[in-house]
Write a structure and sequence with these properties.
By secondary structure, the chain is of the alpha/beta class. Helix content is 53%, strand content 14%. It has a six-stranded parallel β-sheet, with helices on both faces. α1 links the parallel β1 and β2. It is elongated and about 55 Å long. 36% of the residues are buried.
């Protein structure tokens, strides 16, 4: 039996995934969470074989959750199921040790088959996205990404500096580096382009 934990913030999608997987004779959904922090707690309590997670969730994103699992070397494989058909997200997911990356518009039977494949030690990636992921590398460092994400939320350099425990000058340097690497005119354009590419 493949024991699966679901992490998905949309109740309707969470319920549909749970019902869909419940129809499979060899898959058992042992829990379902609405955010990343709850999923992190349940992972440690339930010790499932697989985590099926969305990317964007409150508190802790699916990518951050995958990174934490990787860092703590938990014996659980991660499969991301998302609407984000962006190569940058796939590259970051693979860097975080994710074993599967599927799009929500894929046929339902593909999900169960992908989970079986990952459980056996394989990988399940959307093929078109996998091709695109290697065509353009993410030029941003982790810190530049962090600063740019906060700037895109409308935070001032002072706010960002306070939150990340950096000086305002350092924050401005990171923003300037990100703007230069992306070849745009300002922080808002940099934020938009990085989001569009899936680098944030």
């Amino acid at each position: 039996m493949i024991r699966v934990l679901l992490a998905e913030d949309q109740a309707l999608v969470r319920g549909a995934l749970s019902a869909l997987l419940g129809l499979e004779s060899d898959i058992e959904v042992v829990g379902a969470c609405a955010d990343g922090e709850a999923a992190w707690r349940e992972l440690q309590r339930l010790r499932p074989d697989l985590l099926v997670t969305d990317i964007e969730m409150p508190g802790l994103s699916g990518l951050e959750l995958a990174q934490r699992i990787h860092r703590h070397e938990l014996p659980v494989k991660v499969v991301i199921v998302t609407t984000f058909a962006r190569p940058g997200f796939l590259r970051r997911a693979l860097d975080a040790g994710v074993s599967g990356y599927l799009l929500k518009d894929a046929p339902a039977e593909e999900l169960a088959e992908a989970l079986r494949k990952v459980h056996r030690g394989g990988r399940a990636l959307d093929p078109q996205l996998a091709l695109e992921a290697w065509s353009e590398a993410d030029p941003l460092s982790d810190r530049e990404r962090q600063v740019l994400r906060l700037a895109g939320e409308g935070r001032s350099a002072g706010d960002i500096a306070g939150q990340l425990r950096l000086s305002q000058g350092t924050v401005r340097n990171y923003l300037s580096e990100a703007i230069g690497k992306l070849g745009v005119g300002n922080r808002i354009e940099a934020y938009r382009l990085a989001r569009q590419k899936g680098w944030l």
